[in-house]
Amino acid sequence: MTSAPMSAINAAAEGAAKKLATSTTRRFSSGNAIVEEFVPQSCLFRHRIAISRYLEGNSMDGPLAGIRVLEFTQLIMGPQCCQLLRDLGCEIIKIENPKSPDNSRHIPASESNPAVPVFHANNRGKRSLALDFSKPEGMAIVRKLIQETDVLVGTLSPGALDRAGLGYEACRELNSRLIYALGTTYGPEGPESQKPGNDMMAQAFGGLAWNTGTPEITTGAGALVADTMGGMTLFGSIVSALFSRERSGEGQMVETSLLGGQIWAQSSELMAHTLSGSDHPKIDRTYPWLSSISPISVYRTSDGYIALSGFGRAPWDQFWRAFGCDEIADNIPNRTERITKNAEFSEVIAEKFMSKTTSELGEILDSVSAIWAPVNDYDAVVTSEQVLSSGYLRETSHPIYGQITSMGAPVRYSEGLPDPADRAPELGEHSEEVLLELGYDWDQIELLKEQSVI
Fold first, then answer.
1. Which residue in 218, 228, 219 sits closest to 198, CA to CA?
2. Best label site of 77, 198, 315, 377, fewest CB within 10 Å?
3. What is the CATH number of domain 61-265+417-450?
4. What average pLDDT does this structure show over 99-114?
């Protein structure tokens, strides 16, 4: 990348920071006059070459433009959190050890396909700094970056950043405005807090694995839902802490966990359990506390599966007559009867649905305004007109893998978002660039390479 001339950067930095909505005006009295002083709020204002990336139009727009994030994470939770921050405009510098980088760089799509979908999906558009900060020279680089960073995100093993000398108090001494965000498996306190873990451990410990499957079979969810919920929770805590900083002028530490996200995600189920007592049974996806409305479950069709999640605006009798069940339609049950007969009603629905295709059922259910959806496999998802038209997936060109399907941001803003990044960075792809921006010269960079710091 060719940076803008320093004179242009200096001349435009104040205006750019104002346009990025990362500045404020402080009013104070001086004698008999009221003085207004420009006060930059983002670390990028002080980091003039980073401002040049905005001036050159390098994806530095969006609601979080002007915010720099230093990422010490791997696998899913932390990278997904930072991916969403990047999609909304943040600059992300991902720091990885050159000899032991993010483990997801080594998880192939399949035995015959060497592509690394986990890393690509969660690290698009980030800047990669390959750095051994266990060495004094590497730690010096990290300390300089922290002084010019808005957010530090860490989801390494419990206590890893503290042991490295990068705990909250140490970082706060370098930058009092820093948002220091940590994500763990089990949470910051308690007997399990220092144990390592991952998505499956959180699903198991938090009850989701027990409540998934059938009453006879316990299994984990089919996706990394604990990691994703944890990443979204961490993302939300960071954004709210940034908003708080706009009021107080000070940073803070925020902590969340995979377990905390699992508990929050199962709020309805856990509330139903605590209200009904310890004998609350494991469900078979029939949501018994909603059965007073209608049978809710996934049913087999003649060519697949369909999810029925309520009759919607359709009257009880209209739904049943559509499937030739006049006797049920003529005897509208009260709330208690709907609950006690839910299994019986579900058996009737299952029998009716088995005789028709998913498409045929869809037409009938639409005609009575029922709430339903086909159970799509991944082939159907990635080709869905609804998914593609909403921008949730997009086709991009990768320099190694060719045409691939990448994720888009799951949100839309009327004022727009940065263009979605096409690919994740190679290890250390931006190391020289970041060091040059920090003020290192080429001789110093070569020495750092010789010392295996970068």
1. 228
2. 377
3. 3.40.50.10540
4. 84
